[in-house]
Amino acid sequence: MSESSSIGIVAPQIAHFTEPLPLKSGEVLPQYDLVYETYGTLNADKSNAVMICHALSGHHHVAGKYAETDKHAGWWDNLIGPGKPLDTNRFFVIGLNNLGGCHGSTGPSSIHPQTGKPWGSAFPLLTVEDWVTSQARLADYLGIKQLAAIVGGSLGGMQALQWTISYPERVRHALVIAAAPNLTAQNIAFNEVARQAIITDPEFHGGDYYAHKVVPRRGLRIARMLGHITYLSDDAMGAKFGRKLREGEIKYSFDVEFEMESYLRYQGDKFAGEFDANTYLRMTRALDYFDPALAHDGDLSQALAPAQADFLVISFTSDWRFSPARSREIVKALLDNELSVSYAEVTAAHGHDAFLMQDAHYHAILRNYLKKIKVGGQA
Q1: Catalytic residue, candidates 59, 60, 103, 352
Q2: If DSSP states are collapsed to H, E and C, what string results for 318-353?
Q3: Which residues participate directly in catalysis (predicted)?
Q4: pLDDT tens digit string along 279-315?
Q5: Is 296 one of the annotated active-site residues of the chain?
Q6: Binding site for substrate, residues?
Q7: 352 catalytic residue (yes or no)
Q8: pLDDT tens-digit readout, 215-269
Q9: What is the CATH number of domain 13-182+292-372?
Q10: 3-state percent helix, strand, coil for the chain, nearest multiple of 5
Q11: Is 319 a catalytic residue?
Q12: Residues 319, 323, 350, 363: which is the catalytic one?
């Protein structure tokens, strides 16, 4: 089939888990739901499953549409489908919404089973390790003992990396894209400013804004505007907006003067209408906490010693939030453990968001690597 083939109409599913989930923080989730979607067909020996781990504001709707009239397909639809780099004629692809999310999986806006009210501020903080544990339980639920591949970009790439540490025997290949082994101080700083914008919003109410029937929209809007700046490169912003004036002339006001301002406000407003503030706080905290080397005196090579998978690590030249140097740290640690590693540094102008874009070189790398993954008893 052609590269442009669509996965077609898809539908989300819900997996309910009654076995309590102990969390790294020491708290326990008594029960929980995970919302997920699948694309393609699981083969007879269940050797062709690929799990997609989403980034900060991602979710389970990775490919396809819910209706023919939908204007937008899933967030990685350019990558996944019949004949696309992650070919659903060969692979059974699983996308899920992480715990703590706001797209159907159990999170702060979900009803607490004991109180009958939204969890709100009582919902525990989660870590990448917690997400991976819950994802492994979803694989169990689907009867999958081993994944052909675990794939993720940004925060999703961190989850893919953690899979190879937590469940080394259950992953044959790991695709770690636009990721890092931990956050730099600058990245932690960006996350803290974003959280403070939300927490100091008068409508936040300590995280229990549901009871007040309000949303900390202003804080969430600013947090998204800040985040969006870090996802783009200076060149990409310059090429798209430059110093273009919205109305062609300066108005001498604090209203929108530049096209760049208009774009950021649009993105902030849109996000504030779709995303949950408590989820945003928890997702950014999970990013901050991720550091597999911490338990090994900062030795990433030692942290990755359990890994058994083959790896594809991809970075992008204009990504200043998770720079290529951070990916090379991962590559070095994997090579120190004599693992099979392919590394590509893709020339791209889009900044951190490049991992989401349809780029011919980037997609060719993914296609060629994924073609080599053996499934269904292939020699």
Answers
A1: 352
A2: CCCCCCHHHHHHHHHHHHHCCCCEEEEEECCCCHHH
A3: 154 (nucleophile), 319, 352
A4: 999 999 999 999 999 999 999 999 999 999 999 999 9
A5: no
A6: 224, 353
A7: yes
A8: 999 999 999 999 999 998 999 889 889 999 988 899 999 999 999 999 999 999 9
A9: 3.40.50.1820
A10: 40, 15, 45
A11: yes
A12: 319
User: Exactly one of 57, 154, 323, 327 is catalytic; which is it?
Assistant: 154
Q: What is the pTM of this model?
A: 0.96
DSSP 3-state of 22? strand
List the structure tokens of 62.
């990775």
Q: What token pair was written down for 82? A: 């019949």
Tell the residue number behind the tokens 């110093």, with chain if given: 243
Q: Which pair of structure tokens corresponds to residue 90? A: 């060969």
For the chain, report the end-to-end CA distance as a whole number of angstroms.
24
Q: Do 187-284 and 13-182+292-372 have the same topology in CATH?
A: no
Q: Quote the tokens at residue 281.
A: 């706080």
Structure tokens at 33: 């739901």
Q: Where are the domains of the chain?
A: 13-182+292-372, 187-284
210: amino acid identity, one letter: Y
